[in-house]
Amino acid sequence: MHKNLRIVVEGCCHGELDQIYASIALIEQESGQNVDLLICCGDFQAVRNKEDLKSMNVPSKYLTMASFHRYYSGEKVAPVLTIFIGGNHEASNHLQELYYGGWVAPNIYYLGCSGVVSVGGVRIAGISGIYNGRDYHRGHFEAPPYSPSTLRSIYHVREYEVFKLAQLASGSGARGDSAHVDVMLSHDWPRGIYHHGDMGQLLRTKPYFRKECETNTLGSQAAELLLNLLQPSYWFAGHLHCKFAAVVRHSSSTSQMSTPANVTKFLALDKCLPNRDFLQLVEIPRPPDCWEQPVRLEYDLEWLAILRSTHSLLSRAEREVVLPRESRRVAPDDLEWVRARLAAACKRRGDDPSQALEIQPDAFVKTAPVHEPSSTDGLHGDGCLRGSPQTDALLKLLELGHRVTVPYTPCPPQAGAHGSQRSPSRRLENVQPGQRSSGEEEQRGTSLFFLDRGEDRGSSLPDPDSIDLDEVESAECEDAVAQEYDRQEIVKPESEGECGKDVIVFKGDHSPAHAAPGSQPSPRLHPSRPKLILPPPSL
């Protein structure tokens, strides 16, 4: 009987999968129990080959292959089911192929530009990217090869993604019986979250946050909206490269749904570096009817219905896209239609009907060459958007067409990449500001009710810790940001405290690619004493 889902949450990955999985192995050794799931809160850097590096917005000194390509090629296999969202330092061309989500490697799943899944009955939602008011109301107009501008705007959160997730506030839940979201993921923090935790400690750690905290401008307005609407039990984030915990007690007037869960426990974690708080072990109760079932990654029935009902609003126009003022409640007939489609697909595969919602673990397909250190890895390719058979399969399931993605068409293997196949790349239609893309439906109505258009034009804090280059306009500024990234403080081990059974945090000491100059970290891992840093549910 498996009553709780054991989740390890990680802040910013920055490609350090080997170190993260080694830390998880240590957690399992120390606790004597297996971990069910790893969640990474952005900056995952799913770089398959050198071509992908051209689509990642970081200073040139950090354009390294890291370790993901070994999991993509099959040289290594993730030892635990891994789910991640995108941040602001990603191989954007790779993630754009999987706009709706999908496997980026065996046992490693991308949640999509926004997405909802279920793992062992625990409902997990997420939104990729960071908030920037300049691009919030636009369509998904970017496509490789990216310009210096679109290399940054590609990871900015869009109102359309928030609109889809907001439908969960009035829906019928993952299995048709509850509308509650157990876990919400974002890369940047919800605006104002610092008012619900120890802001004094935060400012002692990051003193240059003071002005933004005092003016309530630190963080994402879009995430703040979703926090108040969805009121998830847990919210995990990264981006600002520090550990911060908070408890948000919601009032009933801030939510459109009725749920007994009116407390959100927020936790932001650091990046994977020596002596930093970058991992957290959390045990989340599973629904009683799932205790006897294996832990599987499954589609969320309501989310699939939302994708279908909002698909006509998905736009690749560069201009502002006007969305409906009111939410579109998912009807029971919509859920039944999706359930029937999933059951039919399950029957065609010959699987047990109880596995109809399962996201097939063997659906992963290499769509780009694997990394060969001695080769150019396709650096002379056309750099255009490629398709994915996983995206094709989902759209076929829901009887939808491509709008911001392109179909996948396999072609003969090309030399120099283990014989892996490449999909012909395609260019998306060039949509000029003020024009509609072909097939885009007329969209009527006024501004979406979420954010005041007169107040959302700023971006979240341009944090030098995160190498956010949105505000960088010269090579000198970029170099200064890179130097700030190198000057990360080393957090000393905390004093021993009482051990709580709700959540446990471990620290790792390892030898990452970007260790601070002059430091000599040991390759061994040294966990700190377990410490309760989130209040138990009773508080």
Summary keywords:
single chain, 539 residues, alpha/beta, Purple Acid Phosphatase, chain A, domain 2, 7-stranded mixed β-sheet, 13 helices, 14 strands, disordered C terminus
Instruction: Give the CA-based shape.
Output: globular
- Which series of helices and strands comes N to C? EHEHHEHEEEEHHEHHHEEEEEHHHHE
CATH class (first level) name? Alpha Beta
β-strand amount? 5-15%
Structure description:
The protein is an alpha/beta fold. It has a single domain, classed as Purple Acid Phosphatase, chain A, domain 2 (4-Layer Sandwich), CATH 3.60.21. It contains 13 helices and 14 strands. The strands form two sheets. It has a seven-stranded mixed sheet. The longest helix has 18 residues. It is globular. The C terminus is likely disordered. InterPro entries: Calcineurin-like_PHP, DBR1_C, Dbr1_N, Metallo-depent_PP-like. It holds the Pfam family DBR1. Belongs to the lariat debranching enzyme family. One of its GO terms (molecular function) is RNA lariat debranching enzyme activity.
